[in-house]
Amino acid sequence: MTCHLTLDEITRDAGRGRRVCFLPSELQEMVLNYGMTPKKALECYGTKFLTTAHTCRKLCLPMKDIMHGDDIHWYLVVILMDDKQVHILDSYPSNERQTPRKDAVQTMIGFLDALFEDLYLQ
């Protein structure tokens, strides 16, 4: 997958009012491995990370993939909120790990969708 989103673009957009938001790196692990609910995420991270995330132009979520044994690979999911696009920035693409990574991203997108719905209903 080719992504045209650059670090320079992220930095440039950060000063335009609607900003780039970075979610905590452990959020993915808490959701995928421990079943964290949107309500619990709001309790744990709300004031620092999540209560304004839905107002961001770009939402960045670091994702961790445990590959073989203890080998860990990080990749970044960038969600363009206005365009409803998801980009996976992966410096180490792997045919073997492509499906588990996409499944993890889809699960997190569903989680964030439910979380933002909870925020709008408050």
From TrEMBL:
One of its GO terms (molecular function) is cysteine-type peptidase activity. Residues 66-117 form the Ubiquitin-like protease family profile domain. It comes from the Eukaryota. One of its GO terms (biological process) is proteolysis. The keyword Hydrolase applies. InterPro entries: Papain-like_cys_pep_sf, Peptidase_C48_C. Belongs to the peptidase C48 family. This is Ubiquitin-like protease family profile domain-containing protein. It comes from Linum tenue.
